[in-house]
UniProtKB/TrEMBL annotation:
InterPro entries: Kinase-like_dom_sf (IPR011009), Prot_kinase_dom (IPR000719), Protein_kinase_ATP_BS (IPR017441), Tyr_kinase_AS (IPR008266). It catalyses: L-threonyl-[protein] + ATP = O-phospho-L-threonyl-[protein] + ADP + H(+); L-seryl-[protein] + ATP = O-phospho-L-seryl-[protein] + ADP + H(+). This is non-specific serine/threonine protein kinase. Keywords: ATP-binding, Kinase, Nucleotide-binding, Serine/threonine-protein kinase, Transferase. Pfam families: Pkinase (PF00069). Its EC number is 2.7.11.1. It is an enzyme of class 2 (transferase). Residues 17-280 form the Protein kinase domain. ATP binds at K47. GO terms for molecular function: kinase activity.
């Protein structure tokens, strides 16, 4: 903590900045809200740099390094970054201090918003769409923020845009300045605990992917209302956020990659993430959160591989155990009765959610996208031939692709989407004569082409919907 005394309300710094109130304090000094007398009392922020070192020579060296970093911030010109106005020297209580003068952002931080409510998936996706271009810009200028967190993201009142504040690069410069001036390292956290990635905490290194890591943690915190340490399993060194948050598979994959332990395993640019962000139309302001998730079981312990369920001749069987491993939803008892004579018979199963992924009007998607009741009634359907009883299963990638198709079609509210895809598919491949597709390897190419057609139709419908 700085040894300097706080500036009093109403006092003037260098006969220009009138102190309104103290905003906060940290290891290098205090931050104040002030009014610029020379600019018609325009509000601004004063950030103090008062390192605990003695001697004119040492302080001069510290100032030089600090000014060098401040000059970098001064060059940043972006509507979602507070303008850096000047570096101000001032004598306080017989000691010289440095102040960074920046624009004041009127609004509330996302940490303050989080005290009122959690954000929905749609809201955090929109937040990323708005803040990733800011990261792309600063990274192109050779600057890494180093300290992204809900506290350092402001929602500006004027236009409801997120603003990135409090660059940790200044803290790094200050730490380096003290070390070079005195030969003694000043212990400080470059980035908040839980938000900063391993290379930043342990080695003091930061890359563009380090900011993406911190942003991903911020997103999870805003969704769940939990601290990072609650979303991370130290004993296994893995993020366990899926125990508390339900997200679309696409956004989940993006966050997982951003949170990779090694910087080289993450996305290397904000542009990459921006281009992959899903379209989410969830109007619910609250996330689906289960603070005490029940354990996931595989059902009958006497069955090494869970039975599979087939619906309507045109379907691909989905191995329930695989779905449970991939998704891990809350268990629901699902007694499935004998269907359509002796042709469809499945005993009562205890499953995460039954997933039937397939080509045809009665497709279902990956577990968790449909809320299944404990009892299910089915419409009258014609007798259909039994599907081959093989042990083939779909890959995780194929399951996730099917789940994403279902999610997007549900978000659009399209009626009879799957029959439309069927018609397009069988018109393109008349040689199949409308036969059902199976999970067998020989049908893999046709399953992929069915998904291609489904995605093309979704893109067309999404474009029409956005007009």
């Amino acid at each position: 903590m700085s040894n300097s005394s706080p500036l009093t309300v109403g006092s003037k710094l260098e006969n220009r900045y009138e102190i309104v109130r103290e905003l906060g304090q940290g290891g290098f000094g205090r931050t104040y809200l002030a009014r610029d007398i020379n600019r018609y009392l325009e509000p601004c922020v004063l950030k103090e740099f008062a390192p605990q070192i003695q001697g004119a020579n040492e302080l001069q060296k510290a100032e030089e390094l600090f000014e060098r970093e401040a000059s970098v911030l001064y060059k940043l010109q972006h509507s979602q970054i507070p303008n850096f106005r000047e570096l101000l020297r001032s004598q306080l209580n017989g000691k010289q201090s440095l102040f960074l003068v920046q624009d004041y952002i009127e609004g509330e931080s996302y940490a303050q918003i989080l005290k009122q409510r959690c954000l929905s998936e749609a809201e955090v996706v929109e937040l990323q769409r708005q803040i990733l271009p800011v990261l792309e810009y600063i990274h192109s200028q050779g600057v890494v923020h180093r300290d992204i967190s809900p506290e350092n993201l402001m929602l500006r009142n004027a236009d409801k845009m997120p603003v990135l504040i409090d660059f940790g690069g200044v803290k790094k410069a200050a730490t380096t300045a003290v070390y070079k001036a005195t030969g003694r390292a000043l212990v400080t956290l470059l980035g908040k605990e839980g938000y900063a990635p391993p290379e930043q905490i342990r080695q003091g290194k930061a890359f563009p992917s380090s900011d993406l890591y911190a942003l991903a943690v911020t997103v999870l915190v805003l969704l769940s209302g939990k601290e990072p340490k609650e979303l991370y399993d130290n004993s296994k060194a893995v993020w366990c956020w899926r125990q508390y948050i339900s997200l679309s598979p696409e956004l989940g994959r993006i966050l997982d990659k951003c949170l990779a332990y090694r910087a080289s395993d993450r996305y290397q640019s904000a542009r990459e993430v921006l281009q992959l962000l899903p379209t989410v139309t969830n109007a619910n302001p609250q996330p689906i959160v289960n603070p005490n998730p029940p354990p996931v079981t595989a059902g009958n312990p006497n069955i090494s591989q869970m039975q599979t369920l087939n619906f309507v001749g045109r379907s691909w069987k989905t191995n329930v155990t695989q779905v449970i491993a991939n998704v891990g939803k809350t268990i629901v008892n699902l007694p499935v009765k004998k269907l359509w004579g002796d042709k469809f018979l499945v005993n009562s199963l205890k499953v995460s959610a039954v997933v039937v992924v397939g080509v045809g009007a009665w497709n279902f998607a990956q577990a968790g996208l449909l809320k299944l009741p404990t009892k299910i009634s089915f419409p009258n359907l014609p007798n259909l031939p039994n599907l081959p009883n093989d042990d083939a299963t779909l890959s995780k990638t194929e399951l996730e692709r099917q789940a994403e198709i279902m999610r997007r079609s549900k978000a659009l509210g399209v009626r009879n989407f799957y029959p439309q895809v069927d018609r397009l598919f069988y018109a393109k491949y008349p040689q199949l004569k409308g036969r059902a597709l199976t999970e067998k390897p020989e049908d893999a190419k046709y399953r992929q082409r069915w998904c291609d057609i489904a995605e093309e139709l979704l893109e067309q419908l999404e474009r029409e919907n956005s007009i």
